[in-house]
């Protein structure tokens, strides 16, 4: 049962996003699912300084948004994202000083950190071009649905940069393995849809016509599950990379004990007894 203290605490910490107006991409809230659409289709949805920063700020806000329980990230016009805009980012970077360049790379890394730290699972819906920083956004998501025609490429070496961008050397090997990640980061070659699925980068392959629908359906299922527990699962999947097995088992014991104190755990038991499907509320 909610108490006055519960209501007061939620009011003090919650930052609802149902009326959020994005300036550099599209945002929509659909029945607990926040939908982010990269929507510069004429340029294959590239990122700019401003869109990097706004995405970072949005994902940071999502940590405190109790009206959003899952996220779908996709691109408009048949492509996911072509990465950093050549003219609006790469060109200007050549003229910046070392401190300004470091401020930029830290800002882009902060976007990935914000994606990993927000409790909502992120489902990336990937068709067409998914390159450079676009591939990083896909990598930083929790689940990835793709198409056979998708083209994912970590292109940093093609522009004279290292593959260690925005956490790629830490995260990509954990998704597809050290050898496969090394190949992609050293060569910048394209990972096509069937291979991306076989390598485990994609969770499933969809047709272009059903891709977004399947991503929304998956996110809707997650958003109507035990979302407090989902948030802990996401946190532990991220944090346990740096833990020993002994430390991880203890951390999971504490996390699971917290979940056992939730009303959702009790709801699930009562529903089982009554032979019903539990209606989770995330508390």
What does the main sheet amount to? Answer: 6 strands, mixed
Q: Percent of residues in beta strands?
A: 5-15%
The CATH superfamily label of the largest domain reads 2-enoyl-CoA Hydratase, Chain A, domain 1
Name of the level-1 CATH class of the largest domain: Alpha Beta
Distance between the termini: 10 Å
What fold name stands as the CATH topology of the largest domain? 2-enoyl-CoA Hydratase, Chain A, domain 1
Structural class: alpha/beta
Specify the number of helices.
Answer: 12
* Total domain modules: 2
Give a written overview of the molecule:
This protein has 283 residues and is of the alpha/beta class. The chain has 12 helices and 9 strands. The protein has helices at 4-13, 49-62, 86-93, 98-117, 133-140, 168-176, 178-187, 193-198, 211-223, 227-239, 245-260, 263-273, and strands at residues 26-30, 33-38, 70-75, 122-126, 129-131, 143-147, 151-153, 191-192, 204-206. The strands form 2 sheets. A 6-stranded mixed sheet has the order 1-2-3-4-6-9, with helices on both faces. It has a 3-stranded mixed sheet with strand order 5-7-8. Strand 1 and strand 2 (33-38) form a beta hairpin. The radius of gyration is 20 Å and the shape is globular. The termini are close together.
């Amino acid at each position: 049962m909610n108490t006055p203290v519960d209501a007061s605490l939620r009011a003090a910490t919650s930052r609802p996003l149902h009326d959020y107006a994005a300036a550099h991409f599209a945002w929509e809230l659909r029945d607990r699912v926040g939908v982010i659409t990269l929507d510069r289709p004429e340029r294959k949805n590239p990122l700019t300084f401003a869109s990097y920063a706004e995405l970072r700020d949005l994902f940071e806000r999502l940590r405190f948004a109790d009206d959003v329980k899952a996220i779908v990230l996709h691109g408009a016009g048949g492509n996911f994202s072509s990465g950093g805009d050549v003219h609006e980012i790469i060109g200007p970077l050549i003229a910046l000083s070392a401190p300004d360049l470091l401020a930029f790379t830290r800002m882009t890394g902060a976007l990935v950190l914000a994606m990993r730290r927000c409790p909502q699972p992120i489902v990336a819906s990937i068709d067409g071009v998914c390159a450079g920083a676009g591939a990083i956004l896909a990598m930083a998501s929790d689940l990835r649905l793709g198409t056979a025609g998708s083209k994912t490429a970590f292109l940093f070496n093609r522009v004279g940069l290292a593959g260690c961008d925005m956490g790629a050397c830490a995260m990509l090997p954990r998704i597809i393995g050290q050898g496969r990640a090394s190949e992609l980061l050293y060569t910048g070659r394209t990972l096509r849809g069937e291979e991306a699925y076989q390598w485990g980068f994609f969770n499933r392959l969809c047709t272009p016509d059903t891709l977004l629908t399947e991503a929304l359906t998956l996110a809707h299922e997650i958003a109507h599950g035990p979302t407090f527990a989902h948030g802990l699962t996401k946190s532990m999947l991220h944090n346990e990379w740096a833990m020993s097995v002994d430390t991880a088992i203890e951390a999971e014991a504490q996390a699971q004990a917290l979940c056992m104190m939730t009303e959702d755990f009790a709801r699930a038991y009562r529903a089982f007894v009554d032979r019903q499907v539990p209606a989770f509320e995330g508390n």
